[in-house]
Amino acid sequence: MGFDSSVGKQVGLLRICLCRGGQSHRWNHFLAAILLATPVLFVSGCGHPQREADLPEPQTAPPAIQSQPQSRNQAFPPIPVPPLPGAKPSAGRIAPTPAPPGGVSDDDLDYVRTHKPIQSEEGLATWYTAARGRRSANGDLFSDHTLTAAHRTLPMGSLIVVTNLTTGESSPIRITDRGPFVEGRILDLTIASAKATGIYRMGTANVRLDLYRAPKPVETGGRWCVQIGAFTSQHKANKLKEQLERKYPSATVIEFPGEASYWVRIRPQGDNREQAERIASRLRPAEGDAFLTRLD
Fold first, then answer.
1. For strand 204-213 and strand 159-164, is the pairing parallel, antiparallel, or unpaired?
2. Dihedral sign, Cα of residue 265, residue 271, residue 273, residue 274
3. What pTM was estimated for this model as a whole?
4. pLDDT per residue over 114-146, tens digit each?
5. Is 106-213 CATH 3.10.310.30?
6. Pick the CATH number of 224-294 from 3.40.50.920, 3.30.70.1070, 3.40.50.2300, 3.40.630.30
């Protein structure tokens, strides 16, 4: 379609229509002037592809990650999660903290290469699996194939590097679950994480855990509870729950199923860490093994 002939035809048709409708000669000239002054309206309707010169310039690549001094509580922004349709906000609900596909992203690998750890700890690590369809504590479906792990107190979504102190093998890993709830162990690895660090065949190993970054402060704040278990009988778990409700009337006590076991969780008002620590210190061994656990 030619531009000049298209505009001429449109102006001619408008003049004919307006003259038939009894409009003035001056009005016809006014409309024709507007149409001739805005040819882009007709060109855009022709369906021709844009020329290469009309396309926007490609965006430049993001700047390389620079090494910067870190503080003990340095954090990176959490991934935003849209609310579920119709969901109502709840003061007691912990927002999900989804992990990148596979657990660790290319950005995480670059970050580890260009930064030093914030803090370190050593202890026993083992690996675990879960029933199909089970969700990790961060809200994601559990998978044996992601570089993820369970820790009791590091903020959910923390980026760590685990080094097998026996073999020297290491791997970046993300915290997405809570555990291990066994005395003397600091970390539960997925099968993929255990293979990446040489722990899968060993079963357990002494490791060094280096924390590189966390979405929330490590030493201050947070939402905490005391977790007690594991009971093989739901009846025993419920009985303890009733006892603890009477003992701590201002706290929220729930009973929930774990992997082939039942647990009781005490959440003090405001999920306050100091109160959770006091509760944990007052529990008797007969009430079960108690673990101070971070929820967020």
1. antiparallel
2. negative
3. 0.69
4. 999 999 999 999 999 998 899 999 999 999 999
5. no
6. 3.30.70.1070
